[in-house]
Automatic annotation (TrEMBL):
It is an enzyme of class 2 (transferase). Residues 371-410 are annotated as: Disordered. This is GNAT family N-acetyltransferase. CDD domains: NAT_SF. Keywords: Acyltransferase, Transferase.
Amino acid sequence: MSFEPRSIPIDPDAKAALAAKGLDYRLIDPADLDALDGWIDADHRGFHHARPRDPGRAYDRAVMAERRVHGVYDDAVPEPRVPVATVSSWPTGLSVPGGRSLDGWAVSSVTVSPTHRRRGIARALMEAELATAKRAGAAVAMLTATEATIYGRFGYAPAAKAVTVEVDRRRAHWVGPEAPGRVHYVEPATLRDQAPAISRRAVARTPGEIDRWPGVLDRMLGLVDPDSDASRALRALRYDDEHGQPQGFATFRVTREPNRPGWVEFDVLAAATDDAERALWRVLVEQDFVTGVRGLLRSTDEPLEWLLEDPRAVTVSEVTDHLWVRVVDPAAALGARRYGAAGELVLEIDDPLGYAAGRYTLLASADGRAVVHSPRPDGDGDDGAPKRERSRARSADAESVPSRGARAAARAAEPRSIRLDVRDLASIYLGGVRPSVLARAGRVVEASPGALQLADRMFASPRTPHLSIWF
Ligand SMILES: CC(C)(COP(=O)(O)OP(=O)(O)OC[C@H]1O[C@@H](n2cnc3c(N)ncnc32)[C@H](O)[C@@H]1OP(=O)(O)O)[C@@H](O)C(=O)NCCC(=O)NCCS
């Protein structure tokens, strides 16, 4: 999905809804630096950050030049060049189980000035983003959220978690295998050429990760403001495999007070291979003169505790709903991922905003690939699944779940189905939660016997979804 994100016209419904409140909803031309700077000021204010100054402002300008940037303006305020609300968005890939990249629409910088809150401005912006995502051909919209109570009403739901992992240095005795390659200290800037390719491979093998844009790599490597204290404190490690090929990198800081051991803190560990992941973790946890290691935005499924003699050296805290997904095109989304089991499953999806509502038949074969059939426009109830695909999926399903006689015949006549809301679809989509857990919570409904068990097996992901950046 590569195209100029500003080529899609401004959403007319949001324009009209905000005009009715005396507000002007505008798509900003990044070449108009005065307008862009006003927007950047509003974004910083909205997130309670300090006023931006160079080189941070130059960085923001460069990042926003690649995005679709909207502001909402109120001529009645004393500084009308600063919008009273902001949002930015861009097309980006989302890794899904099986290693493919799904066309997604990232939404960020959602702010509304406290002087204009609770007048429906965020609603107008968020609904416009969904309409734009759909027009752009995205299968899902996605975001990371400051608060967990804002976005469910627009159909978003948590799809991949992140946690803080802490390791007690005194108890961190490594018992994992030796990696065949080597870890080297490198200057962060020297990683700039290798980071995109390593990150691409690390992202591809982790459902829930999104494509890295150039600016985020600069930020990870402390290159936005290299002379700042934070950048100068940054250390970088690179893992080269036994052939000398770079396969992973990490950046970290050691925070410390005079004469006291510090803490190793990191939020970047990008590994294209398991060897790289293990080797980088090892160097991070085996530093001397530190109390411990704190990894931010790590996976709920880190292998670390299995690599240390004392698994209790590792503690996990701050489990957060990190990636929020909103499905706008269920057929494209469901068809892109690979499934953990063969079978035929009907998803009856409810979506108050309409995008995903309908009955979708998922026919997964033993290799994990799936064909999705969505409702016919004439609404005759036939999902249109070709008989050949249906019988292939059913026989694979029957092989894995022994069934006989009447039950098998009944299943053959009527595919198993579950009913769920579009938010529940988002939560099960990457395999972050089992459909049966959502059924226990009274959210997903098993509409025919055996459907939940089948759904659990089909939606299982071989790798736990995880997103390791904010966007
Ligand atoms: C969150 C924020 C964007 C909401 O803007 P807003 O214009 O006041 O929101 P709206 O008036 O359009 O409200 C839309 C709905 O969301 C609800 N809502 C808005 N902010 C909410 C919050 N912080 N928590 C829970 N619900 C919230 C409203 O009650 C309303 O519900 P309803 O439509 O069901 O009645 C705004 O408070 C803000 O800028 N916060 C600081 C920055 C931030 O946290 N941004 C989110 C980035 S992920």
